[in-house]
Specification:
Length: 439
């Protein structure tokens, strides 16, 4: 099957949670003939810290019983890993298993790098929230991966400073804007938060919460909707706050940002469930002073959040032992012992709903020891995660965001124009790659 033809066909399969026509991957999990005979050795590419210790539990337990041995090969994450996987796949030498972020799955599927493992993961679907599971099926009857960790978004704030300044935790984005303005009047040198253009995932998650569908399909063509009404609403909202000076316009993860959080110059952060780990390093002097609440909503009474981060475990079409690999992937992400080890060694927040309220997640993070219900609240928020709609060139859209929104944030210029640039760059790249794109 030619690359161009495959990309056109895959357009009918790769639109997450949109109910598009099912299309099995070119390589399916039954190619290895079902049950394995004799010892099996598998290779797993992953970036998760401590994964070798988790895999040891498999090799000494269920893996020993099934005669399936897994070897971990540590890799870089993000686009670097995806490029390496695709390069290896072109040579027919991809590993048996790979860790892949959810937004990377369409790219890997469109390049025929991932196998459909639906027949080999048992009742794994029942272990995950619908919105999470749909990210690994791409809205089809196929299953291209098993969810591992997720990043439901939340609102973090300095409880002590909110009290000092007489602020109320916002439950809507309108209240969020009012809170930012009120703080500026009371403490001109203090910001509620910053709009950061150095992390595309944050903006994507906010758009997702607003109902954005950046990639959808119509027949055998893609439709790119990065400039849809939902995303424009988010861009205009934050662009307005930046332009009027109600929030800061500096990037996150810099020494200046760390200092602002640690000294109380910024008193809130729109982030995800993994924020405690970042705050521990960025603002060590404020431990025990922060609190977490659900993300503000666009309309009062709504209950939905976006997702920032998260990954899955997939089986490649190059694997000679797809069924065995799928069995390991299911164990890794649904077995209680494995998930507790992943939390302990890798610091992940599990996608499995049962694991979110057990083991390492019974007590709050040390940094949030003052909020006993941290993980109980997090689990409730996670269930409200909106479906995502990823496409085959997320990396291009993200790079365009950083360039266009980076300039707009710095200059306090029109965010809508930056969004239009992001849209046009993404469409142009898809056409260049040979994807069918509807106007």
């Amino acid at each position: 099957m030619s690359i161009t033809k495959r990309r056109r066909l895959v357009a009918t399969a790769v639109a997450v949670a949109l109910g598009s026509t099912a299309l099995a991957a070119c390589g399916s999990s039954d190619e290895d003939g079902g049950a394995e005979s004799g010892p099996v050795s598998l290779t797993y590419w992953t970036w998760t810290p401590g994964m070798d210790k988790v895999v040891d539990l498999w090799n000494k337990g269920q893996g020993k019983k099934d005669r399936i041995t897994v070897t971990v090969k540590k890799q870089a994450s993000g686009d670097t890993l995806i490029t390496k996987i695709l390069t290896a796949h072109k040579a027919g030498k991809a590993p048996d298993l790979v860790q892949a972020e959810y937004q990377a799955l369409p790219t890997l599927v469109s390049n025929d790098a991932l196998a459909d493992i639906g027949k080999d993961v048992g009742d794994a679907k029942s272990k995950f929230a619908d919105g999470v599971w749909q990210q690994t099926t791409l809205g089809t009857d196929a299953v291209y991966a098993v969810p591992q960790d997720i990043g439901p978004m939340m609102f973090y704030y300095r409880a002590d400073l909110f009290k000092k300044y007489g602020l109320t935790v916002p439950t809507t984005w309108e209240q969020f804007a009012e809170t930012a303005r009120a703080l500026k009047k009371k403490a001109p040198d203090t910001d509620l938060t910053t709009f950061s253009a150095n992390d595309s995932g944050l903006f994507a998650g906010l758009a997702q919460q607003a109902g954005a569908k950046w990639w959808t399909t119509s027949g055998d063509k893609w439709k790119v909707g990065i400039d849809d009404a939902a995303t424009k609403k988010v861009a205009d909202f934050w662009g307005g706050l930046v332009k009027e000076g109600a929030v800061d316009n500096q990037p996150m993860y810099t020494p200046a940002w760390n200092k602002a959080l640690d000294t109380g110059k910024q008193i809130a952060w729109v982030s995800a469930v993994w924020a405690p780990g970042t705050l521990t390093t960025a603002a060590p002097d404020t431990k025990g002073k922060w609190a977490m609440a659900p993300l503000p909503q666009w309309s009062a009474g709504e209950n939905v959040t976006g997702s920032w981060g998260g990954s899955s475990t997939a089986v490649t079409t190059d694997s000679k032992h797809k069924s065995a690999a799928a069995k390991f992937a299911a164990w890794l992400n649904t077995d209680g012992v494995a998930l507790n080890a992943l939390a302990k060694e890798g610091g992940i927040y599990p996608a499995s709903t049962s694991a979110q309220l057990s083991g390492a997640f019974i007590t709050p993070p040390d940094y949030f020891s003052n909020q006993a219900d941290f993980y109980t609240t997090a689990a409730k928020i996670a269930k409200t995660t909106a479906p995502s709609a990823w496409g085959p060139n997320v990396n291009v859209a993200y790079t365009s965001f950083k360039d266009a929104f980076g300039a707009a944030a710095k200059n306090k210029s029109d965010f809508s124009a930056a969004l239009d640039k992001m849209q046009s760059d993404t469409v142009a790249d898809m056409k260049k790659q040979g994807f069918g794109v509807s106007e």
